[in-house]
Amino acid sequence: MLRMVGLWTPENAYWKTAYRYYSNFCAIVWVLFFLCTQAYFFINVSSVADVADALYFFLNELMLLPKIYYYRKNATLMKKVVAKLESENFLPKNMDEEKYCKELQKCFKESIFVQLITTCFICCMTELQMAVEIKKSIFLFLTNSLPYFFVLAYQIYLLCKAGNELTYASKSLMYDAFRSNFMTFDKRTSNVLLLFMERVKRDIKIDAQLIFTITLSIQNFLSIMRASYSYFAVLQSLG
To answer: Does the keyword Iron-sulfur apply (predicted)?
Structure first.
């Protein structure tokens, strides 16, 4: 599927140049489609609800553009990382293999950042759309905007939950080491344990970074949802 839309370069060197032109063509087609649809939605804007609908589609399409850009930018690195992670011999036990974990975060930190920021505003527009639809039709509200809102929120919840679980697990390593029977360790093992405890003082986090850094955590997930509701309250007061 990714190869069909110009996002996965074939390994065969013979086709790489031709595929690069095809990939650029697909990107141009998508940008033109984006501009045409936005022009259509913004032509007949006469109320706050119309603005919400137009911004709703605008942000959904805008979210894809930087994702495609960063995906194409990091495609080569992404292939190497995926090939390494899928290897049966992959065990993150040395610095060389830990480097691949850092490169994996490097591949996605910009696109996840865009995902989180745009989701905040899309949730706001969806909430405004929900407020309009619930007055018109309960059925439309239950089958259209409400399921979309929950799916959108659940999407970023999964990202933040994964980052939160990793940070929590890294913090628990210190307590696990302290609960060991360290009083019976010999001097060499005790020194290794001390080095280990010093190392795990630094929390392991997954960061989304572009303009600034957002750590993936449940706390930041709640902050995003609170911010979207705050923007919704402001827009609703204008209507």
So the answer is: no
Residues 61 and 30 sit within 8 Å (Cβ to Cβ):
no
- The helix (run of H) or strand (run of E) holding residue 214 is strand 213-215
DSSP one-letter string for 175-186: HHHHTS-GGG--
Domain ranges within the chain, ordered by starting residue: 1-44, 46-238
Q: Which helix (H) or strand (E) holds 37?
A: helix 13-43
* 53: nearest Cα among 118, 147, 125: 125
Q: Which residues pair with 207 in a beta bridge?
A: 215
Q: Looking at the chain, how many residues does it have?
A: 239
Of the CA atoms within 13 Å of residue 56, those in its CB half-sphere come to 20
The pLDDT tens digits for 164-203 are: 888 888 788 888 887 888 778 888 888 888 888 877 777 7
Supply the pTM of this predicted model.
Answer: 0.69
Instruction: Report how far Cα 81 is from the mean position of its chain's Cα atoms.
Output: 18
Separation of alpha carbons 30 and 36, rounded Å: 10
